[in-house]
Specification:
The protein is of the alpha/beta class. It is built from six helices and twelve strands. The strands form three sheets. It has a seven-stranded mixed sheet. It has a three-stranded mixed sheet with strand order 5-6-9. The chain has a two-stranded antiparallel ribbon with strand order 7-8. Strand 11 and strand 12 form a beta hairpin. The chain is globular. The relative contact order is 0.18.
Length: about 200
């Protein structure tokens, strides 16, 4: 693999970490798990995976990662959140659990478990702006949706009248799990974002 491949971490506190590592590698990134602040400092971009947002929030605080995460995202670290990761990147949660914190970075309000509980999980074809070709097969598992967005947020996809993919600057988020489908185009979009962010340094 070329030395030019960006190093992208996957926040490995809880959730479907392995699937993201595989998808990132398939999209020509060097993928590695991130559990400690010193590991976070070494990556060019970060994926916040699906899982349980309350648990991820508590573990991030416990592992001393929450403040370093917020600082790096504020400083422009490219970050991509799926499902629970979307919740973690929201500036506001409509119905937070007690003590639940977010990293923030996207000016949006999200609703947890908006599409229903585990037994109401489903798959749907979702057209995502910036992803060429056919719609992406979205896997929705206790998925949130985006209730509203600020002026700086670009809506990339909707499903059933609800916002399910957004981007603000270097932050990308989807309600669904593209890492579970074998279609790596959304991860490729994120890898391109990381490359573009890194490009000025290499000139």
């Amino acid at each position: 693999m070329s030395n030019e491949a960006p190093v992208i971490g996957v926040l490995a506190l809880q959730g479907d970490v392995r699937e993201h590592l595989v998808a990132l590698a398939a999209a020509d990134a060097v993928a590695r798990p991130v559990r400690r602040p010193e590991e976070l400092a070494e990556v060019d971009g970060l994926v916040v995976p699906g899982g349980e947002s309350t648990t991820i929030s508590k573990l991030a605080v416990l592992f001393g990662l929450m403040e370093p995460l917020r600082a790096r995202v504020r400083d422009g670290l490219p970050v991509y959140g799926t499902c629970a990761g979307l919740i973690m990147l929201a500036d506001k949660i409509l119905d937070p659990r007690s003590g639940q914190e977010t990293i923030g970075g996207i000016d949006m309000i999200v609703r947890r478990n908006a599409f229903g509980r585990q037994n109401e999980s489903f798959e749907a074809a979702v057209g995502v702006r910036g992803v060429p070709g056919d719609p992406v097969e979205g896997v929705f598992i206790r998925a949130p949706w985006v209730e509203s967005v600020g002026a700086e947020v670009e809506v990339l996809a909707e499903h059933d009248g609800h916002i399910v993919a957004v981007r603000q600057g270097n932050a990308l988020a989807t309600s669904f799990h593209p890492e579970l489908t074998g279609d790596h185009r959304v991860h490729a979009l994120f890898v391109d974002m990381v490359r573009a962010n890194r490009a000025p340094e290499s000139l």
